[in-house]
Design brief:
globular, alpha/beta, Transcription Regulator spoIIAA, 117 residues, two-stranded parallel sheet, 5-stranded mixed β-sheet, 44% helix
């Protein structure tokens, strides 16, 4: 796999990233996602980014670590990050690990995008 399993779209100054795989548990895949997201953040200071987890059923703790790293880089570069469409079982993990306090999460992509205005 030469390309990270994500789709990137930009509309109205907001970059939306969605995942093409249902499970984000493979270490190589997670590394590719992390590299692609960090490259995106580094290429655009002040980036407004929405990560949509629609269709994602499973995430490993390593994937959560990548999200934390990306969030830190976004903030360091004066950007904003929002998460949306997180499945209930995954959101439970966010709550248990207190990541629901670190990230701004929304039920829909539309809500997440509006919060960046």
């Amino acid at each position: 796999m030469s390309q990270a399993p994500i789709k990137i779209a930009t509309d109205g100054g907001v970059t939306t990233v969605s995942f093409t795989e249902r499970s984000i548990i493979d270490e190589v895949m997670i590394q590719q996602i992390g590299e692609a997201l960090l490259k995106l953040v580094d290429s655009q200071p002040g980036l407004k980014m929405v990560l949509s987890f629609e269709g994602v059923d499973h995430m490993s703790s390593a994937a959560l670590g990548v999200l934390i790293t990306v969030n830190g880089r976004v903030k360091a570069r004066n950007g904003q990050l929002r998460l949306c469409n997180i499945a209930k079982p995954i959101f439970e993990i966010f709550k248990i690990t207190k990541l629901d306090k670190l990230f701004q999460t929304f039920g829909t992509e539309e809500q997440a995008v509006k919060s960046l205005a």
